[in-house]
Amino acid sequence: MKVLAAMSGGVDSAVAAARAVEAGHDVTGVHLALSAKPGTLRTGARGCCTIEDAHDARRAADLMGIPFYVWDFAERFTEEVVEDFVAEYAAGRTPNPCLRCNERIKFEALLDKAIALGFDAVCTGHYARLELVDGRPELRRSADLGKDQSYVLASLTADQLAHAMFPLGDTTKDAVREEAAARGLSVAKKPDSHDICFIPDGDTQKFLAGRMETKPGLLIDDETGAVLGRHAGVHEFTVGQRKGLGIDAPAPDGRPRYVLALEPVSGNVRVGSVEKLAVTGISASAPVVHVELDGPVECVAQVRAHGGTAPAVAELVDGVLQVQLREPLRGVAPGQAVAIYREDAAGDVVLASATIDATR
């Protein structure tokens, strides 16, 4: 099979590509240049897609003896991921840029180009498992639950998954690093990238303030309606946030306040007790259904890349995924994705994914 290996410059994608080569596939490596002005060096685990990463990917490809290219996707990445990220925050929603990048860059733009060039599949270092069931790809959690990335892949379509390869799905991260060292890959001990790749300093508020029209507003007590303070814009807050609210006076009961809701039209931010963060119901739009939902189904719902899971009952109603949580979750915000899973003996399988519009 002719395989295009997406090589980020990290240990995971390098080992995934090496396994594809070892399996006998005709592999070509490609590094995606996602920034018009890439940095020259990382700062530890901050950021990714730097010039250093491109060099690391090339060295790994050279060691494997496979062709290697750098493809410029910077403009597409800016439009589809960065601008979407800013627009979502401006609308008072909480986006997941990694999910959007997988969806629109790695498995839309990259896969489309790969297919057009005659490749059969795109190989990545994601931690997730793919199995064919009745001729359809079934997406499952990784064997390493601590690194599982099925949540950020759950928005991919069946056709995209049919042209995807995740060689690391049955392996733990520690084993991947050991294998990289055994193969002589220089990235064996390279730190994983964390935070948002296009905000390497981790200062999301500063990044947003320089790219969106900010609207000052009020901090309002959700219980009493009292004005507790002022702020420079809703982009400074996320649902569930506790610290950095800029409220001088403590609550009457002495307990901390949390961000409950963002109101971008008025500019107001509502705050209140932690109990008011509890969510028992989710409505989510634009569902991607992997396994047909025939009426209400018992499942496990996940609302964050790591953690944020609860048993639930889910049902498609007029094109909207309605999820009733059997245990409340906190910090669930519009703009996030909800993925639902079915538990079985072979490991959790993704049933569907959708974008959260409202909670209750």
How would you describe this structure to a colleague?
- The protein has helices spanning 11-22, 51-64, 74-90, 97-116, 150-153, 158-162, 173-182, 204-209, and strands spanning 2-6, 26-33, 68-72, 121-123, 128-133, 136-141, 164-165, 217-221, 227-231, 258-263, 268-272, 279-289, 297-302, 309-317, 320-329, 337-342, 349-359.
- It has three domains: 2-182, HUPs (Rossmann fold, 3-Layer(aba) Sandwich), CATH 3.40.50; 214-276, Roll (SH3 type barrels), CATH 2.30.30; 278-359, Elongation Factor Tu (Ef-tu), domain 3.
- The relative contact order is 0.13.
- It has eight helices and 17 strands.
Summarize it.
With 360 residues, the protein is of the alpha/beta class.
Explain the layout of strands and helices:
Layout: E1 2-6, H1 11-22, E2 26-33, H2 51-64, E3 68-72, H3 74-90, H4 97-116, E4 121-123, E5 128-133, E6 136-141, H5 150-153, H6 158-162, E7 164-165, H7 173-182, H8 204-209, E8 217-221, E9 227-231, E10 258-263, E11 268-272, E12 279-289, E13 297-302, E14 309-317, E15 320-329, E16 337-342, E17 349-359
Parallel strand pairs: 1-2, 1-4, 2-3, 4-7, 8-11
Antiparallel strand pairs: 5-6, 8-9, 10-11, 12-15, 12-17, 13-14, 13-16, 14-15, 16-17
Helix pairs in contact: 1-2, 1-7, 3-4
Keywords: ATP-binding, Cytoplasm, Disulfide bond, Nucleotide-binding, RNA-binding, Transferase, tRNA processing, tRNA-binding
Region (Interaction with tRNA): 147-149
Subcellular location: Cytoplasm
What is the overall shape? globular
CATH topology of the largest domain: Rossmann fold
> Portion of residues in helices?
10-25%
Number of strands: 17
Number of helices: 8
User: What is the total number of structural domains?
Assistant: 3
The Cα radius of gyration reads 22 Å
Spell out the helices and strands N to C. EHEHEHHEEEHHEHHEEEEEEEEEE
Protein name: tRNA-specific 2-thiouridylase MnmA
Keywords: ATP-binding, Cytoplasm, Disulfide bond, Nucleotide-binding, RNA-binding, Transferase, tRNA processing, tRNA-binding
Binding site for ATP: 6-13, 32, 125
Domain tRNA-specific 2-thiouridylase MnmA-like central: 205-272
